[in-house]
Amino acid sequence: MRIALAGNPNCGKTTLYNALTGKTESAGNWSGVTVEKKAAKLKRKYGAFGTEIIIVDLPGAYSITPYTAEEAITRDFILEHRPDVIINIVDGANLERSLFMTTQLLELGIPVVIALNKSDIIQERNDRVDIKRLQAELGCPIISIVATEAQGLRELIAAAVKAAGKPQRRVTPVFGDEAVLERHKFVEQIAARAIVKGDNLRRVWLSDSIDRIIANQWIGLPVFFLVMWAVYAFSIEGLGGFLSDYFNETLFGEVIPSAADNLLSSLEIHPFLRDLILEGVIAGIGAVIGFLPLIMVLFFCLALLEDSGYMARVALVMDRHFKRIGLSGKSIIPMIVGSGCAIPGVMATRTIEDAGERRVTAILTPYVPCGAKLPIIALFATVFFPGASWVAPSMYILAICVIIVGGLLLKKLFLWENTSVFILELPEYKRPSLKYASSQMLRHSKAFIHKAATIILVMNTLVWLMQEYTWLLQPAADQSQSMLGTIGSVLELVLKPLGLRGWQPGAAAITGFVAKENVVSSLAILLSEGSEAVLSTPGGPLAGLFNPVTAYAFLIFNLFTPPCFAAIGAMRGELGAEWLWKGLLFQIGVGYTLAMLVSQIGSLVIYQAPAPGLPAAVGISAALGVFLFIKIKDTAAKRQALNLAAETRS
Amino acid sequence: MSSTIGNIIVGAVLLAVISWAGFRSYRNMKHNRCPGCGACEFAANNECPGHETGQAG
Amino acid sequence: MRLSEIAVGCEGIIKHVAGTEKVCRFLYSIGCYPGERITLVSVLAGNYIVRIKDSRFAVDRKIAQIIELGEVTPGADEPDLGCRHRQASRV
Fold first, then answer.
1. In 3D, which of A118, A50, B8 has the Cα closest to residue C55?
2. Would you say residue A190 has pLDDT above 80?
């Protein structure tokens, strides 16, 4: 039996879904977080009904007449798959508006059960809802629930199962898609009869006062930077960094390797296996897992921030700045989702209606440093900038600058006009739930460990073998003659203008496209030979390859060139093949140029000496400048021609 | 003697773990584009709702 | 009078929404339809914060210009704001 959850954005659908299925999907306190439908089995504790019950969570919508793509998913699913029963989640804090969609759902002929969510807010506001009356007016059962506290869910499921299969009783008139105003009038009348409003003034006033400060046109942006700075500094250099240091230095630096070494020696294991396990698997995975505490702290903080309702205000503040580059506040939603993982971020661009804006957002979203890039940031920050709290936040702020400049460039390079309008619901502020933040933290750490145990483990084995053997499968006398060594040497030529020496950076960067954490684990494997020191110690083995300036440039290169293959796949899904290539070229160009500029200019300014590859860097910059100049002029001419054509037509 | 058995056991375990990991990442990547980042948890149990309709390609 | 022209704290009855069909449909579905009351709560970062029914929305200037209001009155339930005249907030 299939039960679909439908309702307005931010009415608590995903919270209810998580409570019913035991999943931990991200459910932010703002609209547009769920863009794909999700399905899972009902938890057994809500009762056994003899058949398997699947709960389907649909993206939020204000109406089932679609305006955005995610609203279309909701409608198409209901019409095509005809679930056995629809649970319509009605937001107690926005009862009248929610009932608009309810009356639409009632017309589909599928049994509807209403879950009156946030009934605690109704009480708090002293609103009175005559549930009996409402049930009679709508012709379907209504169950009061509080999804965040998992209250009333058992009754809800019982009512849904009871209603399933029977045709929906038709009490309300059928309006169809066109008679929108009549439908609103009808809903107003029902609401007037069944709801008595209490007093809601104080709460609202408080929410508005906070808004006036943090969404202020002058201080809104600095406040956002400050908040992000605090979150990143706390999780990477503060508590998270502190715990990671312990993990890296003690647990994965001494305890586990020496225990494994002892065990393997006592079993008299062959040196090949022993090295593969110690230098490949344990060194590689240990270097990544060591950063787990940092991931946990960061996602805990981000979930708190999201749950409080602040992120919707960020979209509001950024709208103004994004409009200048042809985007809007809508584009900020995928980017914030992308701070967890670029894949759902890129997928969230679907909520954007304007095709040009959607494309540009999908190209720019991977610039936001995702969870997988954090270990790279943290590694380089601890090795080359010990004690400095600005490195990690600077990457985030740099990402915002790259997005703004990149958006401006894309607008100049490609011909498109933004026609989209910005409408965003502002949820009321609430005290963030520690329970939700913990569940998000666990979810991200689970995914992180899962990733380390699958794709990163496989890559580590491969990297170890490839740095140990030559193409003729002979043990390499020198690492640089190994398979990975020769690949890295080719890349060394490409990376030379970035001031990078040695084949190792290129080899590590290339493994990063499978999963970004691999940059860290590959460096750990490549440098574990001939060095006993842990990778993440200041002045450790990494200091032989980079100086602080080139280290920062390498960090930029890894963060701002294209994301991992999985995210590229997501980009392909949203952009199509042609725009994917344009996007990838753009990302490579931006990441490479930025890293080059930082490395060369930084070396000149700080060390008063050019980094290696300066002539090549100058040449590349000049060529790029000429290319951009020609391309921008060309596009400007096309734009003018198009405008002229439009004028003559009109 | 004991070292041969030990080698075989350790080698077999390692091979099993790595091929399991490879299989898992391959399957996740094929079905859902994400090798394990948690973007789609259903990939693991092959119950991603997109499969029915072919939307999550 | 358009929504973009009224003072902060004022409320009005929507007379007409003059956008494309899609934009109108969306505005209708969030409760912004002729005959409904709308309150301009504030203007923040160039966006118009409005209250419609029990929820608040941020809409940009383009949208604020297409919402035509009938009678405009000082907001009844925002006593501390009053119906101040808006001069500086034009962005």
1. A118
2. yes
- Tell me how far apart the alpha carbons of residues A147 and A15 are, in angstroms, rounded to a whole number: 6
CATH of region A2-199, choose from 2.60.120.380, 3.30.559.10, 3.40.50.300, 1.10.530.10 = 3.40.50.300
> Residues near A312 by Cβ (< 8 Å), separated by ≥ 6?
A29, A30, A31, A424, A425, A426, A427, C58
* ipTM of predicted complex: 0.84
Could you give the domains of chain C?
Answer: 3-74 (2.30.30.90)
User: Is beta strand A195-196 parallel, antiparallel or unpaired with respect to A423-426?
Assistant: unpaired
Q: Does A319 touch chain C (CB under 8 A)?
A: yes
Q: In sequence order, which residues have a C-beta less than 8 Å from that of residue A270 and are 6 or more positions away?
A: B3, B7
Flag whether residue A202 sits within 8 Å of chain C, measured between CB atoms. Answer: no
Band (pLDDT 50/70/90 cuts) for residue A549 is very high
- Residue A181 CB neighbours (<10 A): 14
Domain ranges of chain A: 2-199, 220-415+440-468+495-500+510-612
Q: Per residue in A54-111, pLDDT tens? A: 888 887 888 887 666 667 777 788 888 888 999 999 988 888 889 998 998 888 888 9
Assess B56–A contact: CB distance below 8 Å, yes or no.
yes
Report domain extents, chain B.
Answer: 2-53
Between A458 and A126, the more confident residue is A458
Q: Residue A57 is which amino acid?
A: D
Tell me the chain B residues in contact with residue A52 when contact means C-beta distances shorter than 8 Å.
none
Average pLDDT, whole number, for chain A? 86
Residues A489-532 have pLDDT tens digits of: 999 999 999 999 889 999 999 999 988 999 999 999 998 775 66
> Best mutation site among B2, B7, B25, B30 for testing chain A: the one with the most A CBs within 10 Å?
B25
Q: Which residue has the higher pLDDT, A481 or B25?
A: A481
B 18-37: CB under 8 A from A: 18, 21-22, 24-25, 28-29, 33-37
Are A423 and C44 in contact (CB < 8 Å)?
A: no
Distance from CA of A166 to the nearest CA of B (A): 25
B-facing residues of A in 405-464 (CB < 8 A) are: 443-444, 446-448, 450-451, 453-455, 457-458, 461
